[in-house]
Structure formats: C-alpha cells, structure tokens
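User: Can you predict the 3D structure for this chain?
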Amino acid sequence: TLTLTLTLTLTPSPSLSLSLSSPNERHFLTDLVSSPERLAEAMGMTVDELEAKRAIQQRAAEALDARLRSGTLTPEESGALQCEHRIKFRGRSGAVSCPKCWSYLPTCICAEAAAGGKHALPEGVERVALWTHRGEWGLTSNTGVVLSLAIDGVDMLMRGYPPHDEAFEALTRNPNPNPNPNPNPN
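Assistant: Here is the predicted structure, written as structure tokens:
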C-alpha cells in the first residue's frame, strides 16, 4: 500500500510538497539528505545537533581556506594541510558520514562488509595500496574504501598526506631488482 500526500500552503509564502510513503517506509539517500529533519532522525540526533556538526566542519573549512589564501605556504605545505583536513573531516560530508566506509551514516555499509568476513588477497599478493588523490578521500562515491573493508591487506592511502606517502613509499620499495616474477616471457 502506498500513501500519497499532497500539501499546498498559501501563506506566508506559497509552497507545494508531495510525499509518497509505504508502511515499510525506507528512505532513499536522496530523500534523507534533502531534509535536515529526516537526516537527523535517521542519525538519531536532533536537527540542532546535526547543524552543529556541520557548522564545526564549515568553520574548519573556512579556516583552512583562509590559511591557503594567505600566500605563505609552499605547495607541499598547502597539500599537506588539505590532506589533514580531509583525514579529519572525511571529505565534504564528514559531519554525516561513517568514519570507516564514508557512506552517509543512515546508509552505512560496514555491517554488510563485516558480515561476509574479510577476504584474502590472491596467492602471491601480499599487499595492495590504493593511493588516492585528496579530492577523492572521504567521498561517498569512492568505492576503493569498500576494498579496504572487505579484503585483508588493502591499504587506503592519500597522496600528499605525509604519513600515507611514507607508507606508500615503504610498500612500493622493491627489494628485488627484477620485478617480473616470471623471467621467461614465453
């Protein structure tokens, strides 16, 4: 059974809203994030708490922007500051996203990923490093993070973040001068 609700408001300003619901109502992500009330409810908090979390992230972004515009930073310092901000706030939606899977909290996939247990890498593969750009870090659309949740030995690393750059360098250091494990091409 579906219920269609149409609401027309004429004062103080004209507006029209339409909603569709079912007894087993499950909000789609677009429905949740388009309404602070629905998102706050799905996250188990008040709208004021949600807005406070978002305000903290917004103030941090503004402070970062002011620092970047100061003209006193080297390109490396600028990149490192941007990376630190991404790490701390998990991209643009950090105030409302899961710290592990980066999905919006109401649609977090961590339980599903854990339910199947972590899988092993193929035989002969010891580690996989997903070295991502800071612009991709924390995005809900970055599916690389799912690999790190579902497969043992997969590291998510952000290029330009000094601790991750060091880890990537250590992972990619090749003690074997012949990287081809099969020297016979035939």
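Residues 1-6, 18-26, 177-186 have pLDDT under 50 and may be disordered. The longest helix spans residues 47-69.
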